[in-house]
Design goal:
Elements: H1 3-18, H2 45-48, H3 56-76, H4 85-105, H5 113-126, H6 142-171
């Protein structure tokens, strides 16, 4: 072991000892106003968290500025490609990330009713026709389903019989 490793190893352990111990089950972020999926009370978060004053009118104005940027990026795409997720994902993720960043900067909670309303408007304007373009899959023909079901059912007892028969023949 070199001298540097010998000197750094105790510092590592000392630094680890200074870290607060967190139980895995109770692990929560230390300082965030984001809502996680497993928190069922996310709709009532303004009653539980207080992150300072949230100016909702200023937040909504900031959201509209971000929406203008999103609208410009969507205008660059043709309307036919609005339902193509591979082309829409970057502007959509940018919109989401900017909403979250602005919300945190303004000491508000996310998700919030203003953001939800604006996302519903975005989906209604840009993605309303997309759900009608999905492929409809039909069921497989009955012959295919029966053959794929019955062949393993028939083969399993045959293989069990062969294994047992082989083991009996090996012993004698």
């Amino acid at each position: 072991m070199s001298r540097v490793t010998f000197l750094l190893l105790p510092l590592l352990f000392w630094g680890a000892m200074l870290q607060p111990s967190i139980d895995i089950e109770d692990e929560k972020p230390l300082h965030t106003n984001a809502t996680m999926e497993n928190e069922e009370s996310f709709q009532d978060q303004e009653h539980y968290y207080s992150f300072g004053h949230c100016d909702k009118t200023a937040l909504e104005q900031q959201y509209y500025i971000i929406l203008e940027f999103f609208s410009q990026r969507m205008a660059e795409l043709k309307e036919e490609s609005w339902c193509n997720w591979s082309q829409v994902i970057r502007p959509y993720l940018s919109l989401t990330e900017y909403f979250i960043d602005v919300t945190f900067i303004m000491n508000c909670t996310y998700p919030n009713p203003i953001a939800e309303k604006l996302f519903l408007n975005v989906h209604g304007h840009y993605f309303q026709e997309c759900s009608q373009q999905e492929e409809v899959f039909s069921d497989a023909p009955l012959e295919v389903v029966l053959s794929l079901t019955l062949i393993p059912i028939i083969l399993i007892p045959i293989f069990v019989f062969l294994v047992v028969w082989k083991n009996l023949n090996c012993r004698t």
